[in-house]
Structure formats: C-alpha cells, structure tokens
Amino acid sequence: MSAAAVEGRLTAEGLKEQERAARRAERARQRRVARDEKAERRRAARSGFANVANPRRSTLMTVLCAIFAVYCLFPFVYLLINATKTQADFTSTFGLGFGRSFALWDNITTVFTYHGGVFGRWLVNTLLYVVVGAGGATLLAIMGGYALAKFRFPGRRAVFAVIIGSISVPGIALAVPQFLLFAKLGLTDTPWAMIIPSLISPFGLYLMWIFSEQAVPTELLEAARVDGASEWRTFRTISLPLLAPGIVTTALFTIVATWNNYFLPMIMLKDENWYPLTIGLNQWKDQASTAGGQAIQNLVITGSLITIVPLVIAFLCLQKYWQSGLAAGAVKE
C-alpha cells in the first residue's frame, strides 16, 4: 500500500473519530442541560417563583382562573341559552336548560319586526350616539392629552387639577344640572342631549395624557422639528402610530360607556324614536307590568344578546392594538 493511501486512510479514520467525539460531546451537553433544567424546576418549586423560560403549572392559579372565567361567561351563556326559547318555554323551563323548541331565528326576526321595527331604530340611534359622541370624545382626548403631555404653557397644572377633579365627580351627580341646562337651551328630547355630554371624557383625557408622556419620546419630536416638519405632520406621522394602544383603550372605554349609558337618556329623552337600546329594552321589559301589557321576555333576552354582539366584535378586532402596547417600557433603554 502506498504512502498516500495510508495517509488518506488515517485521515478518514481521524475524521470519523472526530465526528464520534462531537456526538458524544453533544449528548453530554444535552444531559447537562436536562439536569440543569430539572434543578431549576426544583429551586423554583421551593422558592415559589417560576422562570419565564422554564414555566411550571400552578393548580391553584388554574382553578382561580377557571372560576373567574365561569363568572364572566355565565351571563353570556344565560343569554345565549334563553334566546333560543319561546315565551312559553322561557316561563316553564329551567333557566340554564334549552326549551322544547329552538326559536333563536324566529326570536331575532320578531325582535326586528315587533312594534313596527322600532328595535332597528333604537340600534341606529345607539350607533349614532357612539360614532359621534364616543368618536368625538376619543378625538378630543387624543388631541388634548397629547398637547398637555408634549407642550409647556401657563396654567398646565391648573388644567391637571381640573381633570383630576372631574374624574372624582360621579357622572350621575351631573345628570340633573345637565338636564336643567339642556332644558333651558331647548335641547332635551333631541339627539344632541345624548351627543354633547358624551363628547367629554375626563378619564380618557387623563389616560391619553399619561400615555402620551411615556409613549412618545421628546427627542423624536425635536428631531422632526429640526428636519422642518410642522407640528401637525409630526403628530400625524410620528405620534399617532406610537399612540395606537392608548387610542384604542380610550376608544373602547368611551364606546362602552356610551353604548351602556342608561341614566342620561332616561332623563333626557321622552320620544321613543330617539331611545337608545338600553332604554328601549327596559321599556319592553316593563311592558308586562302595564295594564293589558304582553310579556315578551324572550324578545328582551334576544335583544340583549344582539346588543352585546357589536361590543364583543369591537373587542376582538381591537385587541391586537392592546397587545402591541403590553411590552411598552419593559426593556430598559
């Protein structure tokens, strides 16, 4: 055998030996990692803390979360079950059991056709109050909160005190003064009696103030101004994308508050053509207690189910903007 062949054979054997050594080293490393992870789990169990990269299950937290989930979902399940019943089944069957017939689609049809289709009018009214009132409140909160956070002007502390004072005053305490004021202006029993009070959201303004202070770096705004960008362009192209989680949070707060508003329309509106869903459904609920009134609890339940569907859709569609802001401030700069 030639010297070149011997040298090649030795080289091949050396490479195989190196491969076997590398595999042995990798298996040893994996065993060490497994031992370290097992030891970490034991230390976490003794200390009561869990490693984020090596989580452990907690039976107690699982049970508590399950109880909380049942508590939150119970009203929705009740609505969903009872919306499938006829009026006779609603009064004669168990509340969490289905009736003898499945009448969901018939109930939905009857809800939109009962009393001349007034439910559809109430739904349109509610959407009007939400789009104009809650949308305007969100817009004002964005602009006011951003201005208070990023601009310095005399009286800024006084404005802060007024906002905090407004948050501390319950809305129900202002209902009667608002009614007297709108009565003097001749605006009661009109959509403006619902829209104008909904435009003011002290909590939304405060939330956007605090969020703008943290989410929009002042250095970024100064760089844009040095480059010659106007304040409006800076706000539109730089600040608004950074404020998306705060804007969505404020919008959802104002939307839910306007959608579920009950006391204000109750004292402001007398014409049922301007009722929102809350007052209209309550009128249907009380119908059975009036002289000659017909009990329509199945329609009230079905209407309530239809009422919460838009809110559920809004939360599901906008939750990604919340998630995008969960890590804000988590990384130290």
UniProtKB/TrEMBL annotation:
Region of interest called Disordered, as start-end residue ranges on this chain: 17-39
Query: Keyword set for this entry?
Result: Cell membrane, Membrane, Transmembrane, Transmembrane helix, Transport
Q: Give the chief site where it resides.
A: membrane
Q: Which PROSITE patterns match?
A: ABC_TM1
The record's Gene3D superfamilies line, in alphabetical order, gives: MetI-like
Q: How does it sit in the membrane?
A: Multi-pass membrane protein
**Transmembrane parts of this sequence:** 60-81, 127-149, 158-180, 192-211, 240-259, 295-318
Which GO terms are recorded in the biological process aspect for this UniProt protein?
Answer: transmembrane transport
Q: Which GO terms describe its cellular component?
A: plasma membrane
Signal peptide range in chain numbering: none
Q: Does the keyword Iron apply?
A: no
Q: Which domain of life is it from?
A: Bacteria
Known Pfam families for this protein?
A: BPD_transp_1 (PF00528)
**Cellular location of this protein?**
Cell membrane
**CDD domains, A to Z:** TM_PBP2
Instruction: Name the InterPro entries on file.
Output: MetI-like (IPR000515), MetI-like_sf (IPR035906)
Q: Where in the numbering of this chain does the ABC transmembrane type-1 domain appear?
A: 123-317
PANTHER family documented for this protein: ABC TRANSPORTER PERMEASE PROTEIN MG189-RELATED (PTHR43744:SF12), ABC TRANSPORTER PERMEASE PROTEIN MG189-RELATED-RELATED (PTHR43744)
Name the family the entry cites. Belongs to the binding-protein-dependent transport system permease family.
Name used for this protein in its record:
ABC transporter permease
* Species assigned in the record: Bifidobacterium leontopitheci
Lineage summary = Bacteria, Bacillati, Actinomycetota, Actinomycetes, Bifidobacteriales
